[in-house]
Amino acid sequence: MTIHASKYGLYVFAGCILIGLLFLSGCGADSRQQALQKYIVELKRSALTKKMKVKVTTWQLPTPVIYNPNGYTGSNTDAANAKKNNSNPLQSYPVKSLQFVGILTQDKQVSAYLMTPDGMIYLVKVGDVIGEEYGKIVKIDLDHIEIALTREKRIVTMELKDTP
């Protein structure tokens, strides 16, 4: 019986050796790994030598718009045409509809922020023309703006809007 057991142990030992060799043969695939490395090197080399085509899109600068801060001076028909081709967005609204919402002081120069009915905010300074009435800003103070309406020959004061 002992001999039989040792033969059985010998078979088990031989089987384990064969299984171990089988596993080790799967790990030692140097030829496949070398082939993969060679392929990667060739791929990198071909990518460097290929000339890349880049599609260049052309664009143009927008056409310049001339803004006249002194306002418009001309006939009524010219004023109607100027209103259509208005380059100052603040001249598209009545002065009453504009709101003074803030100030900016830079290098002792005071500018004001005006908000249009559609919520857009613009920076203006003394001398700028605003509103459909071509009102000229004559004074910017910390709490109000004075606008001269030349056609109506009067000064309009716009108070700083309080924020909630």
In terms of topology, how is this protein built?
Blueprint: H1 2-27, H2 30-49, H3 76-84, E1 99-106, E2 109-115, E3 121-124, E4 129-130, E5 135-140, E6 144-149, E7 154-159
Antiparallel strand pairs: 1-2, 2-3, 4-5, 5-6, 6-7
Provide an overview of this structure:
- It is a single chain.
- The protein is of the alpha+beta class.
- The protein has helices at residues 2-27, 30-49, 76-84, and strands at 99-106, 109-115, 121-124, 129-130, 135-140, 144-149, 154-159.
- It contains three helices and seven strands.
- The N and C termini lie far apart (102 Å).
- It folds into two domains: 2-49; 76-159, Roll (SH3 type barrels), CATH 2.30.30.
- It is rod-shaped and about 125 Å long.
- The strands form two sheets. The chain has a four-stranded antiparallel beta sheet, with no helix packed on it.
Output the CATH class name of the largest domain: Mainly Beta
Strand order of the largest sheet: 4-5-6-7
Structural class: alpha+beta
Give the N-terminus to C-terminus distance in angstroms: 102 Å
Order of helical and strand elements: HHHEEEEEEE
Point out poorly predicted stretches.
72-83
The total beta strand count reads 7
Categorize the overall geometry.
Answer: rod-shaped
Largest sheet: 4 strands, antiparallel
Strand residue percentage:
15-25%
Q: Mean of residue pLDDT?
A: 76
> What share of residues is helical?
25-40%
Q: Please report the number of helical segments.
A: 3
Named at the architecture level, the CATH assignment of the largest domain is Roll
CATH topology tier name of the largest domain: SH3 type barrels
Number of domains as seen in the coordinates: 2
Radius of gyration: 42 Å
